[in-house]
């Protein structure tokens, strides 16, 4: 805890304030490419070992399965087992921020303003939106201390993603509106930890994290619906295989790049050459701006 205090990780400390157990930040490092130490993938995992909601206390039925609120940290740490076995030529750092979100006489109060490790101030308008707080300090630590060049966050972040996608799908996009809503919801800090809008809860949580990534390449995976099965009350290990595949992914060949293309709307005159697979939103500039692109694949590659 003294090291966390020394690093001024105020958001993590605020979440931990009501707990008897001290917080921890677990750092895992894998250096597989000593010639390219500037290219480092940062994996940031949410490790809330039990989430009561704090003073914004969860209803009793929502307290069930809150032991799984550390699944994001478990996923990023588990992926390191594969790194040790496969020994790919890449560099990866995992940062897992661990704490309870408990309620008690010392717990952080709603509407408290806390200074993050990055120096940005956050008004905590809901103590049950705590995962994004510990992740924000984890992101800053990874950037400032571990010098990561790209970031993936994995977290059981929002109930909203479960309402939207159920227990089989992970993640939703970020838009400029999400970031705007976070900034509009406070007059006394740089950001609120919840949005001024009751819509797009999962995207609002992701937008909060994006404010701390400093324009680095960024992927956020909200696994609140997929981390465990409510009927069996067992973890799924979701995204472990995905991260392992990503960590071991090689540069695309010229043929692969030709077969899979992102084509803007201006290029849609090539209908005879490509078969449409769907549309995706492409992030731009770190401000949540989105651009619609057509995803197409060469017909002959089927």
UniProtKB/TrEMBL annotation:
<keyword id="KW-0031">Aminopeptidase</keyword>
<protein>
    <submittedName>
        <fullName>1663_t:CDS:1</fullName>
    </submittedName>
</protein>
<dbReference type="Pfam" id="PF00883">
    <property type="entry name" value="Peptidase_M17"/>
</dbReference>
<dbReference type="GO" id="GO:0006508">
    <property type="term" value="P:proteolysis"/>
</dbReference>
<keyword id="KW-0645">Protease</keyword>
<dbReference type="GO" id="GO:0030145">
    <property type="term" value="F:manganese ion binding"/>
</dbReference>
<dbReference type="GO" id="GO:0070006">
    <property type="term" value="F:metalloaminopeptidase activity"/>
</dbReference>
<feature type="domain" description="Cytosol aminopeptidase">
    <location>
        <begin position="126"/>
        <end position="133"/>
    </location>
</feature>
<comment type="similarity">
    <text>Belongs to the peptidase M17 family.</text>
</comment>
<dbReference type="InterPro" id="IPR000819">
    <property type="entry name" value="Peptidase_M17_C"/>
</dbReference>
<dbReference type="InterPro" id="IPR011356">
    <property type="entry name" value="Leucine_aapep/pepB"/>
</dbReference>
<dbReference type="GO" id="GO:0005737">
    <property type="term" value="C:cytoplasm"/>
</dbReference>
<keyword id="KW-0378">Hydrolase</keyword>
